[in-house]
Amino acid sequence: MRFLMVTVCLGLICISSLGQGITSPAGVMTVKQGVWESGIRVMLDGYVYRPAAAAQLCDACPQARDYFLAAKRKRVWSFGLANLGIIQSTTGAIQLENANAIGAFNALVGGVLITIGAERDKAARYEVKSAVEAYNRCQFLE
């Protein structure tokens, strides 16, 4: 049974990494995909860019630049909110021994902040996807 589980796990790892070396045609921007990728980086001509750097590439397409800048802002805020939520939850867990109500409230606030941060990160990934679509439309309509 253990041999079967190891074989299945190794097979899944090999299958999931098969398409990662495939590049897109020249001039086509794509969202970087992979097992450990979050969907926030883009690839253009074999180079990987984060939203701020990708926005600098979009001189001819202001709509794509606006999407990339919005993704950058949302990503920064989501990172800050998630870290603040982790700190608040940890503080709440520490305070549970001495002041139950205050500790529970701090843990609740921390959980809400982490949730808001995760939603903003999801919105940032959507903005990146929209920016890539807008960039490719601009490149092929010119």
Structural class comes to mainly alpha
H/I helix tally: 4
Instruction: Write down the secondary-structure element order.
Output: HEEEHHH
Tell me, briefly, the overall form.
Answer: elongated
Low-confidence stretches: none
How many domains comprise the coordinates?
1
Largest sheet: 3 strands, antiparallel
- The whole-number mean of residue pLDDT values reads 82
Report the sheet-strand fraction: 5-15%
Write down how many β-strands occur, each being a DSSP E stretch of 2 or more residues. 3
Description:
- The radius of gyration is 21 Å and the shape is elongated.
- The chain has helices at 2-16, 51-56, 62-95, 100-141, and strands at 30-31, 42-44, 47-49.
- It is 68% helix and 6% strand.
- A hairpin with a 2-residue loop joins strand 2 (42-44) and strand 3 (47-49).
- The model has no long low-confidence stretch (mean pLDDT 82).
- Helix 3 (62-95) runs antiparallel to helix 4 (100-141).
- The chain has 142 residues and is mostly helical.
How would you concisely characterize the structure shown here?
This protein has 142 residues and is mainly alpha-helical. The protein has helices at residues 2-16, 51-56, 62-95, 100-141, and strands spanning 30-31, 42-44, 47-49. The chain has 4 helices and 3 strands; from the N terminus they run H-E-E-E-H-H-H.
How would you describe this structure in keywords?
3 strands, 4 helices, 3-stranded antiparallel β-sheet, mainly alpha, 6% strand, 142 residues
Task: Give the secondary structure arrangement, pairings included.
Layout lengths: L1 H15 L13 E2 L10 E3 L2 E3 L1 H6 L5 H34 L4 H42 L1
Helix pairs in contact: 3-4
